[in-house]
Amino acid sequence: MVRDASGKAPYRRIADQVIGRIDSGELQPGDAVPSVSQIMETESVSRATAARVLTELRSEGYVVATPGVGTVVAARKPLTAGATRLTLVRAGGDGFRDGERVEIIAAELTSAPEDVADSLGIQPGEPVIRRQRRYIDDEGVSALSTSWLAGSLAEAAPELIRAEPLPRMTFALVEERTGRRVVRRRDTVTTRPTPDDAAELLDVAPGTIVLVMTNQYSDQNGDITEYAVDLHPPGRTLSAEYDVGEGA
After folding, report:
1. E-assigned strand segments in the chain
2. In terms of C-beta density within 10 A (0-12 exposed, 13-18 middle, 19 or more buried), how is residue 24 classed?
3. pLDDT above 70 covers what percent of the chain?
4. Per-residue pLDDT averaged across 82-86, rounded?
5. Packing angle of the helix pair 36-43, 47-59 (nearest 10 deg)
6. Span 35-66, pLDDT tens digits
7. pLDDT surpassing 50 at residue 90
8. Ranges of H-type helices in the chain
9. What angle do CA 119, 122, 123 make, to 5 degrees?
10. What count of Cα atoms within 13 Å lies in the side-chain half-sphere of residue 193?
11. Average pLDDT value over all residues in the chain
12. pLDDT confidence bin for 6, thresholds 50/70/90
């Protein structure tokens, strides 16, 4: 297969161009994307290559085929981020959207990697709790989430190191058992290629660009209670709603 200067196969290069137009807002949900014939003409590629472009875009959730209209930009289902789950719990819910469920991948005591230790304010190699789960809704996997907490919390909440759903969300369980109430969060959002060990769990190919959100939760004393890293597959929209004060 002939690749361009960037090393991408032609179908991937063209698909990424369309994704860029969608992510930038140039193409909105319901807008038509280039057809197979249009891609063949403008990109000088074969019909098979042009058809694969649309196949890739459909498989990644960016477009849908609409009878009588053609292929259009899909309406993306909003993601549920960690901060939103906290809001849902505070409102008396269980932290899940309608139709959403969770699968526990791992729950264990392990040694803190350097980045985790730095985020939790502990020394590398100290015991930490690692919980990994994936959230699934009617469109498939919506997130692969890994939480890290100080290992000492396993004594107050042994459920944290059991590979089964918790009776409450992680931060809610910690609050219930220790009195450490989450009063502040810090979110960081970026994109990066999917690591090989996460690709299968996200149902994407290794190297697929995914949205990465990290959350740091702090208690009433300013201490970090949880550090979480969520990987979100393509084809979704991240949205959040906040109350804004009237004063400037």
Report:
1. 63-66, 70-73, 78-79, 101-111, 127-137, 140-150, 182-193, 209-219, 224-232, 237-238
2. exposed
3. 83
4. 53
5. 120
6. 999 999 999 999 999 999 998 888 777 888 88
7. no
8. 10-23, 36-43, 47-59, 82-90, 114-120, 153-156, 170-178, 196-202
9. 115
10. 5
11. 83
12. low
Please state the rounded mean pLDDT for residues 196-212. Answer: 91
**Per-residue CA distances from 129 to 10, 21, 37 (Å):** 44, 41, 53
Residue 160 token pair = 């944290």
> Residue type at 25?
G
Tell me the three state secondary structure of residue 153: helix
For residue 115, give both structure tokens. 């980045």
Amino acid (one-letter) located at 155: E
Q: How far apart are CA 132 and CA 163, in angstroms?
A: 9
